[in-house]
Amino acid sequence: MRYYSLEKLINLHDGYRKVFQIDSHHLMLLQIEGQRYLIESRCPHREYPLRSSDVQGGELVCPQHGYRFEISSGVLLAASEEPCRNLHCYSLTDRGNEIGVMLDE
């Protein structure tokens, strides 16, 4: 496992959203109501980018087909077409004045 720095803590605020690519990992860091989430940045249904997705009541909604995922766990809650796998969520790690993630090399 290797640590990857994503952002300085001072830059995070409610409404923060940024996409990262680290090797084959496509990630999106969000902060909503003081909670930080790191999820895959593409919908597992058809790989549509989630950067412009809505977050409503703890659910992330894919802007392409309306698939709904629980933001904290990635569990698929509703599908408009064929079911897909859950959204992958990553654990965040605080190091000093920054936040990052540990990923397999």
Automatic annotation (TrEMBL):
Pfam families: Rieske. InterPro entries: Rieske_2Fe-2S, Rieske_2Fe-2S_sf. PROSITE patterns: RIESKE. The keyword Cell membrane does not apply. Residues 4-101 form the Rieske domain. PANTHER family: FERREDOXIN-RELATED (PTHR21496), RIESKE DOMAIN-CONTAINING PROTEIN (PTHR21496:SF0). Belongs to the bacterial ring-hydroxylating dioxygenase ferredoxin component family. This is Rieske (2Fe-2S) protein.
